[in-house]
Structures are given as C-alpha cells and as structure tokens.
Design a protein that fits this description.
One of its GO terms (biological process) is hydrotropism. Helix content is 16%, strand content 43%. By secondary structure, it is of the alpha+beta class.
Length: 215
C-alpha cells in the first residue's frame, strides 16, 4: 500500500501498489526511522527569528517540500501553495538518509551560499555552496521541473503538511520519500532570504530552516 498522510487534516490517502514483500518490510523500517526524525520538524519555528530590523520583511507563508529516493539525492521545492508552480527547485548533493541523521540532533539548518559578484535574481542562481548545520556538504543546483517532478507535485496536491512515501516508478525503486510543511519566508535583502518551518500554536519540536544568501 502507498500511504500519504495530511497532518493538517488527518486525512489518510491509500492507493494500492505492488512491491516485493521482503524489500517492502525493510523499506518500511527505514522509512519509519526517517519519519520519526522528520515529522517533529513540522512543529517548530525558531523563536530567535526577529523581524524588528526594518530591512527584514515577511514574505508570507510558502509550501516547501523535500523529496527523493532513499538512496538518491534530495530535491527541495518552494511553492506559493500546493497547486502552484515551483518558485525554486533545487537538487541537494546529499542523500535522504544524511538529512535524516542530521535531524536526529533536533536542529537542521541548511545554508546555501553564492557569490555576490554574480548579479542575478536570487532564485536564478544556478549553483550554491551547501552547508548543513555548519558543515560543508557539497553543492545544491537549480534545475528546471521535469515531467517526473510535475507528477510528484500533482500527486501531493492534497497534502498540505505531512511525510510519506509515493509509489515506485519501476521495479528498481521502492518509492519516493517526501516531507512537506508550511514555511515562513523572511526577506532580508535582494541577497538573502530564509525559510523557517511554521510552529503550530502550542507545539514544540525540531527547528528546520533553509537560508539563501550571497556573500
């Protein structure tokens, strides 16, 4: 079975799919560990974030989605809403398992840095130097949406907040993992923006933030 859970409404979407049983059990065990790490992050917004500075502006709420195969690289998509086209689509040079391990410590801050001398709109920067919790982990690259990406986003239109697994595209893969949440967008300047996972009232959990900046 494929299961998608909308944590905002509690609605569970079940669609049958065929996966070999032994591999499915092993995959579900690994996926359960990932979700235990990632789902609490849907309930945290850094209290230290301040917008007192006149140069800092709220960009409103956006939908951010991490998705990728268990042994593949992670894609990161920013949308105005779940039905809109991507404002930005990046591919991270790290596997899903790496991000899950980082989140076990209760904090994940992804910083993407580019050269300020290359003047272009922030979302048009082709390559970013990537840091996870202060450690350089390679690069993130901007890419155009593919037919596969469009299919993934279409399947997830009904999911506002949640984590789950989409069905395998072929026999060689066991499915595509995803984490989706509402993020608050903060615009610091034409050279910097950040995205902070929204904290529902009365909840607490991990902090998850993504920073884009030119230096």
């Amino acid at each position: 079975m494929r299961t998608m859970i909308d944590l905002g409404s509690g609605h569970i979407i079940d669609t049958p799919t065929s996966v070999e049983c032994g591999r499915e059990v092993r995959f579900r065990r690994s996926f359960r560990t990932l979700v235990e790490c990632m789902v609490p992050a849907c309930c945290a917004f850094p209290e230290s974030l301040s917008t007192d500075d006149d140069s800092v502006q709220s960009g409103g709420a956006v939908t951010c989605t991490f998705f990728g195969h268990r042994r593949g690289r992670v894609s990161f998509c920013i949308q105005e809403d779940t039905k809109g086209p991507p404002l930005l689509l990046l591919e991270f040079a790290v596997p899903t398992s790496y991000l899950a391990r980082e989140m076990q410590h209760g904090l994940l801050r992804i910083a993407l840095e580019s050269d300020r001398r290359r003047r272009r709109p922030l979302y048009d920067v082709p390559v970013w130097c990537m840091y996870c919790n202060g450690r350089k982990v390679g690069f993130a690259t901007r890419r155009q949406m593919t037919a596969g990406d469009a299919g993934v986003l279409k399947l997830m239109q009904s999911v506002s907040v949640g984590a789950g697994v989409l069905p395998a595209e072929d026999d060689g893969e066991l499915g595509l993992l995803y984490l989706r949440a509402t993020f608050d967008r903060v615009i610091g300047s034409p050279d910097s923006e950040s995205f902070h996972i929204r904290n529902p009232v009365g909840s607490s959990g991990q902090e998850l933030s993504v920073f884009l900046f030119r230096s």
